[in-house]
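ESCALATION

Customer reports they have been waiting on this structure for their group meeting. Please prioritize. Original submission:
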Amino acid sequence: MSTIERAEVFVASPGRNFVTLRITTSDGVTGLGDATLNGRELAVAAYLREHVVPLLVGRDPARIEDTWQYFYRGAYWRRGPVTMTAIAAVDTALWDIKGKVAGLPVYQLLGGRSRDAVMVYAHASGTDVPSLLDDVARFRDLGYRAVRAQAAVPDVGGTYGVRKGSVYEPAASALPDEQPWSTEAYLDFAPTYLEAVRDRFGFDFHLLHDVHHRLTPIEAARFGKRVEDCRLFWMEDPTPAEDQEAFRLIRQHTTTPIAVGEALTSIWDVQRLITEQLIDYVRTTVVHAGGITHLRRIFDLAALHQVRTGSHGATDLSPVTLAAAVHLDVAVPNFGIQEYMEHAPETMEVFRSGVRFADGALQPSEAPGLGVEYDEKAAERFPYEGRYLPVARRLDGSVHDW
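Update from on-call: job pushed to the front of the queue and completed.
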């Protein structure tokens, strides 16, 4: 019987910081898992090295469900982003191994295709409305059928989601960048640029917007009602999701669809949101919600309640997670959309992925497993660099949700 012979944790910064787990079996089969937690990478790396890797050696790599339960239920201290990211790395690596042993891409092990391709959305942004409109035009020309729109609020320097270069990366400083925020200015301005996008480009593509946890429930309700004529595909994270009941108030006031979940880590974090149909799209991810095994549970629960998937997919998720997400996306019946941002060229020097983009959609690799290779030698050229996500402060100096 094949057993797990070793597990290695790699921390590197090819374009941005990533934590990668590589599991090797006694038969020489390897599997990759992503363990990246933006701004807290070393916490997960230490959790894996000190508490998980010693328990992996000698286990049967084929027992994916048992291993998931062992690391979740057996640890006593449950949930939380560090624990669930570490479990996700193990789980994803074991699915990669299982696919290679079977000689099949992972999506075939999940039941095969439910669709021909995985629709994705791009991230258009601008320092003002004209530059945002130009960016939307650029992505439309590239074939995207869905575009998220974000623009800098005039005279407020800390607007979320606006690129400073070719690749959006908010974790860009050795200490947290403290950014100003005005809810009042945002509520006045954001609807106007969403309306401008529709005025220029019409309604033959999906338009998305990320509120990024910035509003109270009643503020989010007012925003959602104001932009109903824009027919948004969704407004994302309109209010912090710790209070699931808060979304009931938003639902009472607007028909704008709601997407939630990129910062949530388990099925219990989204249980009420899904079962009481307080959201339309669940955005939990492979890497932060316990891997393919647990994310499939979340998606199956969502399918029972007509909630569709819309997993987080920014560049702080490595190509390993993107590949795993696409395998799951192509298989589940209630897929909605997949977030997609191109990784930096340095990232793709380290991670060789078979995921393909064409006509506004992604295709999974047909190679056995996930279809991603990790170049350890290339990774050595990109040492870890400590970086933090920003912190938001209202104009009176008080800390606000970033």
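Sent to customer with the following note: The chain has two domains: 4-105, 109-369.
Escalation resolved.
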